[in-house]
Amino acid sequence: MDELNVQVSLYNRHRNGRYSSYKGTVGKVARNVLHQHFNETVPFKVLHTDVTQVRLADTKWAYVSAITDEASKEVLAFQVSNSPNSKLIMDTLDELTENIPEGIKPIIHSDQGWHYQLNYYTDKLSEKKFIQSMSRKGNCLDNAPIESFFHLLKTECLNGFPQCKDIGEFKEITKNYVDWFNNRRISQKTKVMTPCEYREHALAV
């Protein structure tokens, strides 16, 4: 299959395995503030972030960095790159600051990926007065909300487009999915409202 450049036509979780950025302790490891207590109901209080990867039809990888709201499930930041580098992470934080009200000081929970330990990231959180929290080493359940979103992204969105030809097509398809997810997709977890509707409802109470 490699010699003939043949790939399966359905999304395959083994071929598109979960991206792991863990490289040991390379900077500051924050304490786990949440301890798997994912019961926040007020938007902008607890946010989750991570990076995942998806194989494209040209055999290259696309890397997705996202931030979701635990209460509303809303995707507050979504960036795509061909490299899981510092620019991808900082562009995600910059998008987040544009999409949340000023003065908000949420908990931002991540795994212990190397980019979340280094000064450029921790200093930015400190500057914004965001509270950093991290999963235990090698425990994906500690960051289940963002893992759940990535699962939905790959099954609901990418099953229809299993072979995005390149990163440009991937960006367009995922951009449309995030817009649909935030504004049209209802869920029992958000009281049969879309994430944006739930956010407005919860903040109005």
UniProtKB/TrEMBL annotation:
Q: What is this protein called?
A: Integrase catalytic domain-containing protein
Recorded GO MF terms: nucleic acid binding
User: Which SUPFAM superfamilies does the record associate with it?
Assistant: Ribonuclease H-like
PROSITE patterns per UniProt = INTEGRASE
| GO biological process entries | DNA integration
In terms of superkingdom, the source organism counts as Bacteria
Locate the Integrase catalytic domain: which residues? 39-203
